[in-house]
Design brief:
The complex is a heterodimer of chains A (about 525) and B (about 450). Chain A has 13 helices and 23 strands. In chain A, the strands form five sheets. In chain A, strands 1, 2, 3, 4, 5, 6 and 7 form a seven-stranded mixed β-sheet that branches. The termini of chain A are far apart. Chain B has about 450 residues and is of the alpha+beta class. In chain B, a hairpin with a 4-residue loop joins strand 12 and strand 13. The chains are: A alpha+beta (about 525), B alpha+beta (about 450).
């Protein structure tokens, strides 16, 4: 069994007591708060995994992996001065993936007995065999060194363990502050927390148990005017972090300022459609990176495996774009990274037991590499020279099959340490957009239209007023090639989403995107108001 | 059709009415709360996915999850688990009670419902619940063969698709004596075909409660025919055009009215159905006089859920009748406050848009100049005041001239409202099954707002 939180507090307290004889202890503790230790798998979990693995091998699998997951999700939602929902859910089960004659099969069950594990393994084998009826290509897996170990998201305080009354108090305090603003009549706030304990055992000898902790706060205020209403949603990034992150946002202290933007929007001027220089704050740009760089550089899309759902990609075919497609200007460097601190897709190993990786997708504006899993490596190995999987395999739950999902993908800061104010100061006629609003992009990731939460008109290097009904619409390569200014290190910010959908049946992925503010020249701005 | 000799795969794994009742009673007996509600979902799902003439993944999942909602005074909370041994169930009940005690009072909370009478909806089809991996693989083979043949004029056609069969049993029970149980199935099959030159893409879809209503070869053939016809698309300037929306495209838009149909949103000034100065627009004309929009679980074309997640019976709710807004969705609380009859989550009873008798072909034939849309993609809300959305056309946009399809067009981005659009109808077709629980017609809409071009194929 894993140590409970209370055991952990006891342990650290006694350690502190022993160490208290030392001279600089208080300073040392304050500088580096202790993070939680990584729990190991229960013996019963390993037993069930081995049962399924043996059944799969016995029935003819050349490869098999078993994932056992226990997911705990909690959400607390409030509106105005009341709680609108408190939910807590637990989901526990086992999924087996088998390879027979180069065909995949997958089955999952919540019947967590030896018989249940065996039955799932045999059902997966039936699917592997049935798939031979339609098979033009055999699956080949890139090699990976078997690994054993445990890992946990570095957190000081597990948000699931924070008393529910503390969460409610924090949200209601934020709502109360927001309701002080004139015309603000509705406020919604919430906190979602997830703890995922996942054990992966493979027929190649990998046996790892990881605990992933994620937290996602939300805040939105709506102001009602005369025959009109406007909302403002603060961009509170979900993170792979503990409760300490939620506290750092100071929602009660900031809510009044956030809500006042909803009221301000009621009197903002409707935008004049046309071409403008566009300044995107990181709280808006992260989503544009997600949609226009993250998705098109997924290798499964490029080779057509998502054609029936999420779509294909303009970054294709691989032999014509790797090292040849100029995505953007030389100041553009895009990095994929599953090791980034606080990010949503951070792990030690992916769902195939591949160690977390960091690599460049775009280097100095040139497209360099895709996101890959083990079975995809052979497709582009000769073009990239990369013989390992980049570790992008992920399944949302025990009941879903793992496949290629997006890692954290970020725009690296520029050499000069500029901030958004420097970019505004250098802009003659532009629009600055803060936070994410509506977003939509086509199935090859060319034509997109994004909105935001707050829009400001920039004239001669200054913000001169607020706008509304703004959306920017562009073609991906044209847009990125028009980027002519980016912020430096100190303006970097990590955004992200809990709910990126892909695959059939659709699965949700949590992913972060870091970026700096950036300016794009001559972008089409639409007015989205329509009345008939 | 012959009866299956043995129980289908799914029906042997789903909870029966008696098993669901026994499980619910066990949980209700564990609860010390003043009010308790148990919701159970017992599910089976089998799926097969393919691309480029290979099955890429297939899966089978069985699961039973149970949600306990408890109330202590005006404090309520819920907890969910799929671990069904006594210890885990007790832990789940206790956690819900603990969470409820910690929650502030909810002034809007109503007592759980007592026994109700439900209509029997026969939405469970054994043929769907028995769609095993071999049968799915065989359907995929028929699809790929039909698509390959129909795609010949373009060369070696690329196909990708997804077939899924679901069976579920849902139950709701309360400490006030309510018990509701319902079983349903659905099958869903979609196929995308792409031409080898990369300039053509087509899509077809079929969905029903009964797998036998889905023609796997036809889905492949239609997708391939669309792909062949959509090659070498030409550019026309974006702007306001008459649009002929196939029933699948209409099904992408009309359900987006759901949120706007909530009475509370309308009464509180947050919906296009809000009346300036307060109240809602029930009784006012909100759409073309040919339009009727309704939900009805008993409708043979819908076969929706006969109760919502609180166990409230769902009956027929007519939202819009001949263009007049007739009803909005009232939760139990909001109905009581406004002196109305609660509809509960009536949209779970399915959704049908009716008003015409013509086929899609006849709607096209009546069009002098317009754009035919196969379906839409990546639709996102822009403005809740008008339900304005943005999105793209996908897998086949065609120019219609003098009642005939004359050329393939590049895809468009559009900004349009499904509500405002219903006021600009030139014609409405007959409602056709587009997926389990949905009946939608083809529509011919004047001045559909195509705003920019997309290079995507």
């Amino acid at each position: 069994m894993s140590p409970t939180r209370r055991d952990f507090i006891k342990a650290t307290t006694s350690t502190a007591a022993v160490l208290a004889v030392g001279p600089n202890l208080d300073i040392a503790l304050a500088a580096a708060p202790q993070t939680l230790p990584a729990p190991a798998a229960d013996a019963a979990v390993i037993d069930l995994a081995n049962e399924a693995l043996n059944a799969a091998r016995g029935a003819g699998a050349s490869y098999a992996d078993v994932r056992i997951g226990r997911y705990r999700r909690q959400s607390v939602a409030t509106r105005e001065r009341q709680v609108s929902g408190v939910t807590d859910s637990e989901s526990y089960g086992l999924g087996v993936r088998t390879l027979v004659n180069g065909c995949w099969g997958f089955a999952a069950t919540s019947v967590m007995t030896r018989a249940g594990a065996q039955a799932a393994a045999l059902e997966a084998i039936v699917m592997s065999r049935a798939a031979r009826a339609v098979q033009a290509r055999k699956v080949e897996l890139a090699p990976v060194k078997p690994v054993t170990g445990t890992w946990i998201t570095p957190v000081v305080r597990d948000p699931i363990e924070v008393p529910i009354e503390d969460k409610i108090a924090l949200l209601l305090a934020a709502n109360e502050a927001a309701l002080k603003v004139k015309d603000v009549r509705f406020v919604n706030s919430s906190i979602a927390a997830l703890r995922e304990v996942k054990t992966l055992v493979t027929s190649e000898g990998t046996n790892v148990t990881q605990t992933m902790i994620r937290v996602g706060p939300d805040f939105a205020a709506t102001a009602i005017g005369t025959g009109d209403f406007q909302s403002f949603e603060e961009e509170l990034a979900p993170r792979g972090s503990g409760w300490e992150y939620v506290e750092s946002l100071n929602m009660p202290g900031n809510a009044e300022r956030w809500a006042s933007l909803a009221a301000e929007k009621l009197t903002a001027q409707s935008v004049q459609a046309g071409q403008y220089d566009l300044i995107l704050e990181p709280t808006n740009l992260w989503l544009t990176i997600h949609e226009s760089i993250g998705h098109p550089t997924e290798l499964d899309r490029a080779i057509g495996e998502e054609a029936n759902y999420a779509g294909t990609s303009f970054v294709a075919p691989p032999e014509k774009v790797i090292g040849q497609l100029q995505y953007g200007p030389p100041i553009m460097n895009i990095q994929a990274d599953r090791t980034q601190d606080g990010s949503l897709s951070r792990v030690a190993w992916d769902d195939e037991g591949v160690p977390a990786d960091q690599w460049l997708i775009v280097e100095k504006g040139m497209f360099k590499d895709y996101q890959t899993t083990r079975e995809q490596v052979a497709r582009i190995q000769k073009l990239t020279g990369v013989t390992r999987s980049h570790g992008c395999s992920y399944a949302e739950s025990w009941n879903a099959v793992q496949f290629q999902r997006m890692p954290n993908i970020s725009l690296l800061p520029g050499d000069k340490d500029l901030g958004v104010n420097d970019i505004v100061a250098a802009t003659e006629r532009g629009i600055l957009i803060r936070h994410t609003g509506s977003w939509s992009i086509d199935h090859q990731r060319y034509n997109f239209q994004f909105s935001g939460q707050a829009f400001f008109e920039v004239r001669n290097g200054k913000i001169v007023g607020m706008l509304r009904d703004v959306a920017y619409q562009a073609n991906t390569p044209v847009f990125w090639r028009s980027m002519d200014m980016i912020g430096g290190k100190s303006s970097y910010w990590l955004g992200g989403a809990f709910n990126d959908g892909k695959g059939e049946p659709s699965q949700s992925n949590s992913v972060s995107h870091g970026c700096v503010p950036a300016r794009f020249k001559n972008v089409t701005i639409l007015n989205t108001a329509r009345s008939s | 059709m012959a009866q299956a000799a043995r129980p289908s795969i799914a029906s042997s794994q789903l909870l029966t009415r008696e098993q669901a009742k026994a499980l619910a009673d066990r949980v209700l007996a564990m609860s010390t709360a003043e009010q308790t509600r148990v919701a159970i979902a017992s599910t089976w799902s089998g799926n097969t996915r393919f691309a480029d003439a290979s099955i890429t993944t297939s899966g089978g999942v069985t699961n039973t999850s149970l949600t306990v909602t408890v109330a202590i005074g005006k404090r309520q909370a819920s907890s969910t688990t799929n671990v069904l041994d006594d210890a885990a169930l007790k832990r789940t009940v206790d956690l819900a009670i603990q969470l409820a005690r910690l929650s502030p009072e909810d002034p809007e909370l109503l007592p759980e419902l007592g026994p109700q009478t439900y209509q029997t909806v026969n939405a469970f089809v054994e043929a769907t619940a028995d769609l095993d991996p071999e049968a799915r693989a065989s359907a995929v083979r028929r699809t790929v063969a039909a698509a390959t043949a129909a795609g010949k004029p373009a060369g070696q056609i690329f196909t990708a698709g997804y077939l899924e069969a679901n069976a579920r049993a849902v139950a709701v029970a309360t400490s006030n004596g309510l018990f509701a149980y319902h079983r349903s199935t659905d099958a869903d099959y979609s196929v995308t075909a792409r031409t080898p030159d990369g300039t053509g893409s087509g899509w077809a879809h079929s969905g029903a409660r009964d797998w036998n209503a889905i023609d796997a070869a036809a889905v492949g053939r239609i997708a391939a025919q669309k792909a062949v016809a959509s090659r070498n698309p030409q550019t026309i300037d974006p702007g306001l055009y008459t649009a002929v929306l196939e029933p699948q495209a209409v099904n992408d838009l009309i359900p987006l009215l759901g949120n706007a149909l909530a009475a509370r949103n309308a009464d509180e000034g947050r919906s296009p159905f809000s009346k300036a100065g307060g109240g809602n627009r029930i009784g006012e004309k909100v759409a073309d006089e040919r339009v009727t929009l309704y939900s009805d679980p008993m409708d043979r074309g819908l076969l929706g859920l006969p109760f919502d997640n609180q166990g409230l019976p769902i009956g027929r709710t007519v939202w819009i009748e001949k263009g007049i807004l007739k009803n909005l969705a009232y939760t139990r609380f909001w109905a009581q406050k406004q002196g109305k009859v609660p509809t509960g989550n009536a949209l779970a009873g399915g959704l049908a848009l009716t008003g015409g008798t013509k086929s899609t072909e006849e709607i096209i034939a009546g069009c002098t100049r317009g754009i035919l849309v196969t379906h839409f993609f990546y639709i996102r809300a822009l403005d809740p005041r008008t339900v304005l959305q943005t999105g793209l056309t996908r897998d086949g946009a065609f120019l219609i001239e003098n009642g005939k399809i004359t050329r393939a067009l590049k895809n468009f981005r559009w900004n349009e409202s499904p509500l405002l659009m219903l006021n600009r109808l030139e014609d409405i077709g007959r409602a056709e099954p587009v997926e389990a629980g949905r009946l939608m017609p083809a529509l011919r809409v004047r001045d559909f707002n195509f705003t920019s071009l997309s290079d995507a194929v």
